[in-house]
Structure formats: C-alpha cells, structure tokens
Amino acid sequence: PEHYGIQVQTTETVRYWAERMEKAGYPGRWETQVHCCYAEQDKVWVQDPDGRSWEIFMVLRDDSETYAPPAVAQHGKAVADACCAPTCCT
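User: That's the sequence. What structure does it adopt?
Assistant: Structure tokens below.
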C-alpha cells in the first residue's frame, strides 16, 4: 500500500503537525525511536480524508548498524513487511 512521507527537522515539529492534524479531526498514531531501513526515527501516521496515509517523521540517527525494512501504511497504520512478521523465518 502507498503512503506519503514528510521529513521534518525536529521531534517538536512532528508533534506540532500531529497536534494540528488532530485538532482538524485527523488523529495520528505515534511511533518513537523506530527503525526504518538504517535509520532511527520519531514519527506520526495520519490518514487524510481520501484514505491516504501520511508519515510525518524526523530522523534521530541515520547510521544504525541494523537494517529494518520500511513499514508500509495500511488503513492509517504502519504494517511491517511480511519478512518481519513474528511468524516468519523461525
């Protein structure tokens, strides 16, 4: 599923946009210190009136030694790729 991303410079800016979207009737879902690819991020997911998922994020570190596949948005929620499912690769 598709999603759109907006990178900002600070976690405070992520919080600002999350609060602004919530006041407009579009509550978000926070993720803090999550890994996406080789980066650690703070982010909020918001779904727009047309059903598109938006990720507003700030990169905390972009030099993680561990690769985590990027999450994909599905109905306003981040869902890990199938290879990262808890039942996979046991």
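DSSP finds one helix and six strands in the chain.
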